[in-house]
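Structure ticket #2291
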Amino acid sequence: MNVRQLRYFLTIARCGSFSRAATELNVAQPALSHHVANLEAELGVRLFDRSPKGVVTTECGETLVGHAEAIMAQLD
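Resolution: structure written out below.
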C-alpha cells in the first residue's frame, strides 16, 4: 500500500464513481481500477460494491476511509 493508492481510493470513495475520480485526478480509468484491484488483493477484502450507477464503499472500505483520511492528514 502506498500514498498514491490511498489518494486514489479516497477520491473514488468521495466521487462514488471510477470515471468521475479519473477525471478529477487526471488519470486513466483503467489505471485507477488497477490500483484498487491491487489494494483489494493486498488487503484480501473488497473495498467497493460496484454497480452500473457507480460504487459505494463496503464495510471494510469505510474502515479504510477513516484510516486513509487520518494518514493523509498527517502527511499534509
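Closing remark: The mean pLDDT is 94.
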